[in-house]
Amino acid sequence: MAVPVTILCGELGAGKTTLLSRLLETANSEIAVLVNDVGEVNVDADLVEARTDLETGDEVVALENGCICCSLGGELSRAVIRLWKEHEFDHLVVEASGVGEPEPIARQFVRGPAGGPYDLEAVVTVVDARRFHDRFADGDDVPVQQGADEEGTRPLSDLILEQVEFCDLLVVNKCDLVDDEERERVVALLETLQPRAEIVTSEYGDLEPETLLGSERFELETVRDSAGWKRQIEADAEVDEQDHDDRGEKHVHDHDGADEHGHGDADAHDHAHPPERYGIEVEGYHCRRPFHPERFAELLRSLPDGLVRAKGLTWIAGREKQAITTSTAGAETTLEVTGRWIASFSEERQETYRQGQPDLAWDDEHGDREIRLALIGRDVDWDALESRLDNCLLTDEEMDADWSDYENPAPTGMGETVTISSTDDPEGSSR
Ligand SMILES: Nc1nc2c(ncn2[C@@H]2O[C@H](COP(=O)(O)OP(=O)(O)OP(=O)(O)O)[C@@H](O)[C@H]2O)c(=O)[nH]1
Q1: Could you tell which of 7, 8, 17 is best to mutate to test the pocket of ligand 1, judged by most ligand atoms within 8 Å of the CB?
Q2: Is this model's pTM higher than 0.90 or not?
Q3: Which of 11, 70, 153, 294 gets the most CB atoms within 10 Å of its CB?
């Protein structure tokens, strides 16, 4: 029988080790633990070991040389397979590095060699209620430490939201440090960011072992596709497919979902538009016309305060081949080349690719080039944001001009990223 696995994620200091120590103390089953820390010599492993080994004899294995999700894919698989061969236990918990992306770790257990002896049951993300509130859910402008991760490529806020979006259980920890309303605001925002995840609240990780260990089998595709931004994009795309009037003009769907075209899929509709609480809303923006690179960068430097998340594909003038993913988390936006527009290939290859993707929406003039963003925010003036986004689009005149001369901060190579930070000037020039 495959051993169930739980992956534990969450930003540095959110309370993963505290929760894990408690779990090891209270669970009746034999739990093996794999701990990974970036740049530190397994302080957590020592801690967990010190607190649990003598009492329970639980196994603790530590990975030393970096982050499991980047370089240690192979090492992770080897370590957990060795563990499985050499020891008997009922459950494996992997405590992931505080700055890692959870998906590559999960993949090791779903598609990698570790998928044989193990069965991934749950990805649990621990959220520091206080810090999450101040960073994303507060109406006031509280200064919070932002910045890129250790490699300088991804802002911390982006990784935190990715961990929230890629999990099936969210533990809102440190609830002693927020009041009831602040806690509710955090929960409402988390529900919007990942509508499918179960959400529990805790202080010092005081949860029943069953809450953490008793979940159903993890489904990678389902979890990945259920992030709030993704649902919004899919619901919008579905509407466009049904709507044959979508001829290159942009439209923003109303926040209550009552866009002028109507939704075809009630389920997608419900999930894409969760109940509005604390002014939290989800919007979509779609257009088959590129952004002017300088005007778009200017907008990203002066985003409205309440915008928590924006994510999706963008077409940026001067980058005719590059399909660029825009990912805004709080004040920081990462632009990353995540693929190539099919329309930039030769006719012959376009045919081949399009045959492989019969559902791909195609415009006679622009092919698959488009801007399709999901926007999540609280108390955002959506009309104002929409018109600011519209002002970033090329004008008719610019559409016919040469785009190669623009100052263009957008990345060019596959996988390349550029981060643009928003200042505290929401009224900043966006023209
Ligand atoms: N006030 C408060 N402090 C907490 C709570 N949970 C954990 N802490 C404290 O927060 C600090 C960080 O907790 P850890 O459990 O080490 O956090 P972590 O997520 O494992 O941190 P990294 O290993 O650095 O990623 C410790 O000092 C804990 O005692 C809580 O619910 N409330």
Answers
A1: 17
A2: no
A3: 11
